[in-house]
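Hey, I was hoping to borrow your eyes for a little while. No rush at all, and the record is pasted right below:
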Amino acid sequence: MPTSAQDDAETVTGTPPSVVEDVLVFPASFAQARLWFLDQLAPGSTVYNVPLALHLSGPLDIRLLTDSLSELIERHETLRTTFADSEDGPLQIVRPPTPAHLDVRDTTADRIQTEASREAATPFDLTAGPLLRTLLLRTSPTDHTLVVTFHHTVCDGWSIGVFLRELGSLYHAYALGLPSALPDPEIQYADYAVWQREQLQPAALADTLGYWSERLAGAPALLSLTTDRPRPAVASHQGATVPLQIPSRLAAPLRDLARRTRCTPFMVLLAAYQSVLARYSGQWDVSVGTPVAGRGHSELEPLIGYFANTVVLRGELRADWTFRQLLQHIRTWTLADLQHQDVPFERLVEAVAPGRHIGRNPLFRAAFVLQNTDNETLHLPGIDCTIFEPAAGTAKFDLTLTLEEEAGGAFTGTLEYAAELFDTASAKALADSFHHLLAHAVTAPDTPLDRLRLSDTDETGTPVTRPGHAPPGPATPRPARRPTTPAPSSPCSSSRRPAHRTPGP
């Protein structure tokens, strides 16, 4: 039976219609729905917090900063979105704009890291919101640290760049007494969510899901790495990181090998990472997850929201392949996999791994991230800005290798590890082995994978495996299928009609 808007508002908010806010209600995107489900399984988890800290040195105008944050919240509906459950799945509740709440606290310089990390590790309530928090730590009139924490349901890595650019633009305009020069967004994230659900119906995904069903058929459910502690039934997602650097003297031959083999630096780094995981596990069939931007339409680029998708990159390695041979297979697999990146990871899991264990990540346990966006910073007039990421103490997967290209050509990053499985020493040893194997591979690419060195003293390519655990037999790669699904229409063409506005008092 149809219900009135007031009836719907009461169902969504749990409050009488006489005091309900003027809100917009939309279906959650596939990615948001998955994070909602995970949050219901583990309320209070902070693994999907997205923290950012900016040290600001100079005469900061706190009022202008607050006004700029308020304008950002008004421009981007995601920054005033919360979630509610319904019979048809989670809903986005877009609330009216309200002034930003910038929490200003006086502190001392030696407390900055601690307080920033505490803020980054504070959980969100997806139902109550807000899903953006801002904290300003003040150590003197000209020394501040801005800590910004998003929940991943409303933000991704690309969004951070949008947020910083627009915050700087707004602050600069307001400092000159001018209005915002930013154009209004053509669409909002909720339009994308509606469009996504209209476009990605089962019939439209049939060919792509067929590709992935074939591509991932028979892939091992686990990555059999030796751990320092038994794997718990349900992951706590407690984590830590060890630093990792690929200096320019190693990055140069890496790029040269990539050019000579018609690969990208991403492919070379992925090949080295999967080789190390294979050597450590004794398992030569290794799947690694990697994020993609998910913004194939230009009108999505200036938005803040969770567009990123995850692609599973399966490597069916052979111990007797040379590194050069592996690169040719990696190139073929990766290009084909990325041609099929548009299927939401959530739909892929439903199709390929429906019987998964809810306490474990499906399809892969290790991830690889190469930050290939331009280095973003916050530009405020008269203020020097330095960005750092507070330690949140979480890990989404067993292992995540994250690298970013520096201006001088080097790569720097971290190896994030699940602290419930690995000691710091074990994670550091694996990171060092990655560095040594990569250095050997790019200078001697015709070396078999099982002979690549894992340390300075390793002259024979000794495998690192669990006692009594023999590597499986060599895998035979399958040719990749080409997509036949027509390109989807633009999200600008999507109607907002599935949403409804609930009246205020």
